[in-house]
Amino acid sequence: MSPRGYVNTHTRGRGIPVVRPVDKESVRQVKRTERVVATAIIAIGAFAVTGALGVALPVAGIVAGAMIGLTVVFFTASSEPALIAVLSMPLLCLVQRLGGPIDLSVGDAALFVVFLVMAFLGPRPMSPILRAIIWLTVIYQATTVFTVIIHPYPANFVEWLHAWLLVAGAILVGWAAARRGYAPAALTLLILTAAAISLLSIGVAAGRFVTAGTLEEVYLYWPFFMHKNVIGTLAAFSAVVVYARPPWLRWPNWATTLMFIVMCGGMITSQSRQALISVVVAVVFIVLRSSSMSARSRAVLLPMFAAVVVAGLTVAAQFSEANKFNSVYQRLDWYAQSTDVWQMNPWFGMGLRWWYTGILAEEFQPPQAILEQLSSTGIVGLIGFVIMFGGFMMILWRRLPPEYGTLAVAMVLTRMVQGQLDQFWLTVQVSVPLIIVGICIGAYDHAAPDPGHKDNVAVVVLD
Length: 463
Known about the structure:
- The structure is a single chain.
- The chain has 463 residues and is an all-alpha fold.
- It folds into 2 domains: 23-122, no CATH class; 159-447, no CATH class.
- The protein contains 16 helices and 3 strands.
- The chain has helices spanning 24-56, 60-77, 82-87, 106-121, 128-150, 154-179, 183-212, 228-244, 253-270, 273-289, 294-297, 301-320, 327-344, 369-399, 402-419, 427-447, and strands at 6-10, 17-21, 461-462.
- A hairpin with a 6-residue loop joins strand 1 (6-10) and strand 2.
- The protein is globular, with a radius of gyration of 24 Å.
- The two termini are 19 Å apart.
């Protein structure tokens, strides 16, 4: 090992190791340049998004202020580019639409900006586990590019890139934040954001019960519109995190138990069945894999039981209704119609977001992951989809220790269960669980770095 501040070199022609001092002024200059470039990129991205929001949204003042606030914090708080990934976590949960020809959500636009920063200025090098995960996303993109070529409409190409951002981009952003040691802060911000949304949902449901005596599903309209399934799934992701309670989260038992109850309240008041069922499956998985979980599993049995009862009662009520256009019967019709669309091109599908093109009479997003993939990308794309998400679970299970891998696998499992009960490729409902997966990988890499993980500017020079 070389002394601190030195690098190994070799003398010319003799191969005898010698030690040469690192030029500390050069190192400082590199760091100053990185700070300037990072600040410029973030400032430009923040103000560009702010300008777009100012035109597109009536609530642009809130979001624009948040984006500018992130830029100011980055200017004044630290020279660490990864902090922008941490501080952006609440923005990554917002589903308000920007409008315009691409019509990204606020969360997706923020993810794009942060992804660019992390791609150029994030930690280096990528760990072996992260590289394996990213290669799986490349395989998926390769299997779906055929439908982009066969159906050359603009939305097809845009969605092809968008899907990669939601998966690989989200994982990279989560990993970059955690790799630099900010995993507890990043997860805490995600959990608190979901808690605020859940408390708003509980408040709306309570007010409605007091005034009208009803317990209907909740849609939030303030400060942004939020669909009940967005409320429920965001609560579900955070519920799984606080139940797993990885030791590196550094939350006390009472706080995670209280937060789990709040998240169950958000899921129950939203009446999102996919969220309720996915959490039950994830909790069972966590308990079975981690024997240490059994001691505290009893504390959450009551809210979990209530969640399952609510899900079962709502489904039973809709089946018994005379209304054949409720969500249960409507889904059955969509399943049949999605199969018909897939059969038009079984191998490569009808294109990503075919329901927005107007080339087909059907204009709905298939409410089930397999049918959505088949109708969009065909059998070839479905194979890539299975390889990607199946590969995620296999790598996370086998190559991460349980204190990191259990939560990561549970997040992928949670989203996959939700996707069997509703639409799969939906903005934050895909990106948020994969951000958490990236955080788990980055937390492991930070805690147990090998020589390939070390972030330094010293290099081996051969004379």
